[in-house]
Amino acid sequence: MRKLFLKTWRRAVLVMCAPIFLGRFFQRETGSEYGVGFLRKARLLVRMFRNRFRIVTASGFLDQVVMVSELLRIPRSVAGAVVECGSYCGGSTANLSLVCALVGRTLHVFDSFAGLPEPSAADQLHVLPSVQELRAFEKGDFCGSLETVKSNVQRFGNLGVCRFHVGYFDQTLPGFKEPCVFAFCDVDLRGSLETCIEYLWPLLADRGFLFTHEANHMEIAGLFFDPGWWNAHVHSVPPGLVGGGSGLGLYVSDQGFFRSSIGFAMKNIRPADFAASGSVKPSLLSG
Ligand SMILES: C[S@@+](CC[C@H](N)C(=O)[O-])C[C@H]1O[C@@H](n2cnc3c(N)ncnc32)[C@H](O)[C@@H]1O
Q1: Closest residue (by CA) to atom 15 of ligand 1?
Q2: Confidence (pLDDT) at 13
Q3: Using a 6 Å cutoff on CB, does residue 164 contact ligand 1?
Q4: Which among 116, 170, 217 is the best mutation to test ligand 1's pocket, defined by most ligand atoms within 8 Å of the CB?
Q5: What are the extents of the domains in the chain?
Q6: Ligand 1 pocket, residue 142 CB under 6 Å
Q7: Which ligand 1 atom sits closest to the C-alpha of 167?
C-alpha cells in the first residue's frame, strides 16, 4: 500500500513538473533551424513516449527528452553525425533515429550486440551513493541482438538514418573517423566508456555534447574530472560532467531530492559562447 502511494505520488510530482522538463524542448529555438515546430515536436514526443512501452529500454523517457532537446538545438551549420554507443534492444536508438531523421543527420550505432564484455576488476561493482545502491556487472548483461535492434528501429524509429557497427568498442571505434556533433554513451562500464571517449572526443565538434547514462556511478563521474587520464588519452583537460554524482534532477528519489542517471560533458566551451546566447552573468566574462 505504501509502495503504491509513493509510486502514485512520484508520478504526480513528475506531471506537475512537466512544464519544467518539457520547457526547453518546446521553446521556439529548439528545432527552428530545421523547420521543426510545435506540432512536429509534439508528434515526436508522443512517438518517443509510446516507444517506452513498445521496446525494452534501459534509459528513461525524460533522459531522452533532455538529449533530444539539445540535438534539436545544434546549429544546422555545424556538420556532423550523431553517435550512440550502447543500444541494448534499441529503445534509445529508435528515439534518436526519429530526431536524426528530422535534423538530417546519420546515427552511428556501436554495440557488440552480445551484451557487456568481461568487466575488469574495477568494473565488477559500481557505487551509486545518490540512490544508495551497488551495481554489479557481468559479461553478457544487456544483450540485444542486431536483429532485435534493427527490427525495433524499423517498426518504431527510422532505420534509414542508422549505420550499425558490430563488435566491441576497442575493435570498431578506432576505425571510425567521421566528425560528430553529439554522442550518447550508455555503456555501463568505465572501461567501455574510456574507449568511447578516447576515440569519439577528438571527432566531436566544439560545443558538442557527450551524454553518459552512468553519471551517478562514482567510477564514471570521476573519469570526467581526472586530469591525468584526459591528458594521457585525449591530450586535453577534463571537461567535467553536468550531473556528475547524482545525474540531472529529473526523477524523485527516495532520498528526498531529484536525481537521474543522465549527465553530459560539453567540448571546449568558452564563456563567450554563453555570452552569445545572452545567458552569461557579467562575472563569468571578466577574467
Ligand atoms: C545499458 S545497455 C544500453 C541501453 C540502451 N541505451 C537503452 O536505452 O535501452 C549497455 C549496452 O552497451 C553495450 N556495451 C557495453 N560495453 C561495450 C563494449 N565494450 N563494446 C560493445 N558494446 C558494449 C552492451 O552490449 C549493451 O547493449
Answers
A1: 187
A2: 81
A3: no
A4: 116
A5: 2-285
A6: yes
A7: 21
**Whether the Cβ atoms of residue 257 and residue 131 lie closer than 8 Å to each other:** no
**Please, what are the averages of pLDDT over each run of 10 residues along the chain (287 residues)?**
81 84 94 97 97 95 96 96 98 98 98 98 93 94 98 98 98 98 98 98 97 96 97 96 95 87 94 64 49
Q: Which amino acid is at 155?
A: R
pTM above 0.85, yes or no: yes
Does residue 186's CB lie within 6 angstroms of at least one atom of ligand 1? yes
Residue 12 is predicted with a pLDDT of 86
**For residue 189, what pLDDT is reported?**
98
The ligand 1 atom nearest the CA atom of 90:
9
What distance in angstroms lies between residue 76's CA and the mean position of ligand 1's atoms? 29
In the CATH scheme, what is the homologous superfamily, with its name and number, of domain 2-285? Vaccinia Virus protein VP39 (3.40.50.150)
CA nearest ligand 1 atom 12, residue: 86
Ligand 1 and 192: CB distance under 6 A: yes
Name the nearest CA neighbour of 94 among 62, 54, 126. Answer: 54
- pLDDT for residue 1: 78
Residue with grid cell 528526498, as numbered in its chain:
256
How many Å lie between the centroid of ligand 1 and the Cα of residue 1?
35
